Amino acid sequence: MKRIAILGSTGSVGTQTLDVIAAFPDRYSAHSLTANTQVDLLQRQISQFHPRTVAAADGDSADRLARGSGPPSVHAGVEGLIEAVTHPDVDMVISALPGSAGLVPTLKAIEAGKTIGLANKEILVMAGEIVMESARRNGVDILPVDSEHCAVHQCLAGQDPDRIERVILTASGGPFRNSDPAALERMSSKDALNHPTWNMGRKVTIDSATLMNKGFEVIEAHWLFDLPVSKIDVVIHPQSIIHSMVEMVDGSLLAQLGPTDMRIPIQYALSYPERLETPWPRFDITRNWSLTLDPPDEDMFPCLGLAYEASRRGATAPAVLSTADEMAVEAFLQHRIGFTDIPGIIADAMDRHAAAPDRPDRQDRPDRPEPVTLESIVAADRWTRAYCAKKLIAG
Ligand code: MG
Prior knowledge:
With 395 residues, the chain is α/β, with parallel strands linked by helices. The protein has helices spanning 12-23, 39-49, 59-67, 77-86, 103-111, 121-138, 147-155, 189-192, 202-210, 212-224, 263-271, 303-313, 317-333, 342-355, 374-394; strands at residues 2-7, 28-35, 53-56, 73-76, 92-95, 115-118, 142-144, 164-171, 232-236, 242-248, 253-257.
């Protein structure tokens, strides 16, 4: 029996992880569940899955849970999340909180030796070097839950990493793939949330529409598979049937294909290295499918290029990219900015952060290479939050 802790159990990946756990009750149990604000849903999950530990974002929510017919142990805040994932009985942590909130609890889980199923790509975007180094030091496997990286992970099984020519990540292209560039300005959050193939959370769905999601995935692949971003390409594949590909030096292309169902990569991560029979609909490739592949339009979707640029700049630039995107997407969802304003806000934050003379982490060493520490990443995150908030209020 594998005992699972879920960071973000009420989100899209969290609820689908619970679907997998429910489908294999003899193999998996939900040891710890954590949620941000959806306390009612968390309460229902507690009744169904009987976790030993739960954590909520704030003390009031935790009190509400503790008053219910709750689990033995209820915690609150970041400390609560850490408690939930580092418990000695936990075997594996599914890290599925969106944005930067999952960074510290995931690092603590790695230090506690827990296998990680990583759905939160922002963690690797912001702090890939620290996360991967800690995983190596602690002998911890980081198994991708992202469908593209799950595909690459499968393609690379048994391959010599030195013989990889490049990785090709597929992107659906989002709902605006065929839009007239002039019409993008008027696109509402409702239009952007209408993703053609995948059923995902709001943040990642907007990131899919801007292609920032694919940009994050390029950086994620760079850390997971130890490849330079120059060897990671993106291709638009609207059918989302080929989940990604690896080209080897001999010219062979390896691909993984399957249904557009996140429960499949989640099940892969939970059962790895075993494979279990799927209880969900299969994808029949012998039907009459047409698969198309096209290069991305980087002029129309500048966020993809910003991600490559942040990765080339290195150090804290990807953390600024990630946090500025989080702020810009939130402002777009609240109708405070337009769809095409998103990349400008991120690019401005990246440039200003690089030049900011008052950055507390750079005051004593402005001309030396920037060190990458958890402190410098947290400082970059904080700087970006404050800068973008001021900028967004000023309009
Ligand atoms: Mg993905």
